[in-house]
């Protein structure tokens, strides 16, 4: 790491701390040449491979803008969308890969979006799971209903 003050090609790490979100490391460094201190932030890169083959850095903002369209007219706040984007990024980073297909990001959005708003989930899923007919929507709705019934039955069983 070059010193930003004297350009000496080496520095010594004095302190390391994980950021609040746990996705980066902040390091305090000291230059052995001039003695001045400076901070660096280190993050693991995460790149997205688009359908065209172009590779670009992962962007939470793109996740939010894509999901925002599915959430139009729904009771979903910007804060809810920011939390969803963070959950998506965390789940992708947990795979341990540094490059991911854009379609995989769309699929990673589905679970947290279903928890947030089921109507927005159906809108989004219709694109990423390539719904081609009314039967595809009916199947998805039937699955959601059965999950609700299972959750209700488990809740009643726990109360007994």
From TrEMBL:
<keyword id="KW-0547">Nucleotide-binding</keyword>
<dbReference type="GO" id="GO:0005524">
    <property type="term" value="F:ATP binding"/>
</dbReference>
<keyword id="KW-0067">ATP-binding</keyword>
<feature type="zinc finger region">
    <location>
        <begin position="3"/>
        <end position="34"/>
    </location>
</feature>
<dbReference type="GO" id="GO:0045892">
    <property type="term" value="P:negative regulation of DNA-templated transcription"/>
</dbReference>
<protein>
    <recommendedName>
        <fullName>Transcriptional repressor NrdR</fullName>
    </recommendedName>
</protein>
<dbReference type="GO" id="GO:0008270">
    <property type="term" value="F:zinc ion binding"/>
</dbReference>
<keyword id="KW-0862">Zinc</keyword>
<dbReference type="Pfam" id="PF22811">
    <property type="entry name" value="Zn_ribbon_NrdR"/>
</dbReference>
<keyword id="KW-0804">Transcription</keyword>
<dbReference type="InterPro" id="IPR003796">
    <property type="entry name" value="RNR_NrdR-like"/>
</dbReference>
<keyword id="KW-0479">Metal-binding</keyword>
<keyword id="KW-0863">Zinc-finger</keyword>
<dbReference type="Pfam" id="PF03477">
    <property type="entry name" value="ATP-cone"/>
</dbReference>
<keyword id="KW-0678">Repressor</keyword>
<keyword id="KW-0805">Transcription regulation</keyword>
<comment type="similarity">
    <text>Belongs to the NrdR family.</text>
</comment>
<keyword id="KW-0238">DNA-binding</keyword>
<dbReference type="InterPro" id="IPR055173">
    <property type="entry name" value="NrdR-like_N"/>
</dbReference>
<dbReference type="InterPro" id="IPR005144">
    <property type="entry name" value="ATP-cone_dom"/>
</dbReference>
<dbReference type="GO" id="GO:0003677">
    <property type="term" value="F:DNA binding"/>
</dbReference>
<feature type="domain" description="ATP-cone">
    <location>
        <begin position="46"/>
        <end position="136"/>
    </location>
</feature>
<comment type="function">
    <text>Negatively regulates transcription of bacterial ribonucleotide reductase nrd genes and operons by binding to NrdR-boxes.</text>
</comment>
């Amino acid at each position: 790491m070059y010193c930003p003050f004297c350009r000496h090609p080496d520095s010594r790490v004095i302190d390391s701390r994980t950021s609040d979100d746990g996705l980066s490391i902040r390091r305090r460094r000291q230059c052995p040449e001039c003695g001045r201190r400076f901070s660096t932030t280190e993050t693991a890169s995460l790149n997205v491979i688009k359908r065209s083959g172009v590779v670009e850095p992962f962007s939470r903002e793109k996740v939010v803008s894509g999901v925002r369209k599915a959430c139009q007219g729904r009771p979903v706040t910007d804060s809810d969308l920011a939390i969803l984007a963070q959950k998506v990024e965390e789940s992708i980073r947990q795979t341990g890969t540094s490059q991911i297909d854009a379609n995989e990001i769309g699929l990673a959005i589905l679970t947290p979006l279903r928890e947030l708003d089921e109507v927005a989930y159906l809108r989004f899923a219709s694109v990423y799971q390539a719904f081609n007919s009314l039967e595809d929507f009916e199947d998805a709705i039937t699955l959601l209903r059965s999950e609700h019934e299972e959750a209700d039955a488990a809740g009643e069983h726990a109360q007994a």
